[in-house]
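Example record

The entry below shows one chain as it appears in the dataset: sequence first, then structure tokens.
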Amino acid sequence: MKKTTNKIVLIGAGAVGTSFLYWAMSKGVADEYAIIDVNKDAAKGQELDFEDASPSAPSFFSVKSGDYSLLKDADLVVITAGRPQKPGETRLEMVADNAKIMKQIALEVKKAKFDGITLIASNPVDVMTTVYQYVTNFDSKKVISSSCTLDTNRLKFEFSKIFNVNPKDLNMFVMGEHGDSSVSTLEFATLNGIPLKDHYADKKIDASKKAEIHKKVYMKAYEIINRKRATFYGIGAVLAEISQSIIRDERKIFSTGSLLNGEYGEKGVYAGVPSVIGRNGIVCTYQFPLSKEELLQFKKSVSILKETTKKALAAIK
């Protein structure tokens, strides 16, 4: 019998995962949702709470909680499980603990014979995505990291304030690591095709100002964590938008993590690069033009990801 509904399974029912579900349900992304968490009581509680939201949603949905058998017939699994980032801790410092968690999840997902798309947001996200793909040996095009999509939103928001425009009309990306070594692509950024660099002088945007904006972007998570102990609404919205592009085959472009295979001369690790996302996962990647300095920063970021990935893989042996 032909499948007629879309199903999303969430693994990890913490603040990030449930914020994602709330966004996805509010947007009417899927028909069925399922929740898997080590804390089965909490997962059941989330199921019951989300049930109450269904009559008010734009379209009816069903929601269940349980074990990995829920992956049967799922189109998309979104993984947010892992221990949270502590105040003052970098994402890369979480690597050993979360690599072990990710290995166990990957083995369970593979055992369940899941054959859909995987979207991962567990930090350090590109490293965890590399671990997951390594353990499952799934097609890398069907395994996606949320990577720098949230960072890109933050960058666009900062520039939207400067130029007084809608952030959606800004064409720029944060690339590389979702973290401190990320790169803001400002040299060839545009406003719907209009080169922004032609207007930097008018807006008093020099090298110092660019560095200040970039630091604000990658430090924003630390500020949020220090103030309210966790970030979850922004990443929840991003995950819902990526999921919608997958479920509806919208083929939108995001700075998601792809397993590099020659982009900017790099291979073998997931990193944030502009990628077209559709029903079958990563349709293709594009090399957004970079200045010499931005390219060097990107390569340094990838180098850091490679070193951290070695530590993660060593931790799961």
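Notes for this example: Residues 149-311 form a domain with the L-2-Hydroxyisocaproate Dehydrogenase; Chain A, domain 2 fold (CATH 3.90.110.10). The mean pLDDT is 96.
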